[in-house]
Amino acid sequence: MDQRVVSQIIEAIQQDDYVLVSNLCQTGVDLNVLSDEYQITPLKTAIEFDNIQIALKLLEYGADPNTYYFGLTPLGQAVDLYCLMVQEDPEDNNLSMIKFLINHGASPKLLGSDGTSAIDVAIAYGCQDILDVLESI
C-alpha cells in the first residue's frame, strides 16, 4: 500500500495539488519510502518543484529532511537545483527552500550516497552565497 500511496503523493506534488497531498498524508503512509515507480521520495519531489507549502506538510506527517536512498541528500538536491538556476539566471537567487530545509533539521554536512554533502555541492558550483549560509550552521 505504501508504494501506491507514495506514487500518488508524488503525482499530486507534480500537479501542485496541496489538498490531495494532505489527504494522502493522513493515511499514515511512510513518507520516507522511495517510490518504486518514480525512484524518489515525496520530499525530494517537493524540493524539485520548489514547493515549500507541500514540503512543510510532508514534514508535519513525518518526512525526514535527512533521508535519502541514492545520490544527494534533500538539502544537497536543493543546493544543486539552486546553483543550476543561478547559473542560468543570476537574478534567480531565492534561498527559501534551502533555508526552510535547514530550519527543519536538514544537515549540510550529511553525506549523500555519492559521498557529497550540501556544502560540497555549493563548493563545486562556486555558490558562495549558499556556502555562507551552510557554513554558518
TrEMBL record:
InterPro entries assigned: Ankyrin_rpt, Ankyrin_rpt-contain_sf
Keywords assigned by UniProt, alphabetized: ANK repeat, Plasmid, Repeat
GO BP, one annotated term: protein K6-linked ubiquitination
SUPFAM superfamilies: Ankyrin repeat
Keyword presence, Chloroplast: no
SMART domains in alphabetical order: ANK
Keyword field contains Phosphoprotein: no
One term of GO molecular function: ubiquitin-protein transferase activity
PANTHER family per the UniProt record, alphabetical: ANKYRIN REPEAT DOMAIN-CONTAINING PROTEIN 39-RELATED, BRCA1-ASSOCIATED RING DOMAIN PROTEIN 1
Protein name, UniProt field: Ankyrin repeat protein, putative
Organism: Deinococcus gobiensis (strain DSM 21396 / JCM 16679 / CGMCC 1.7299 / I-0)
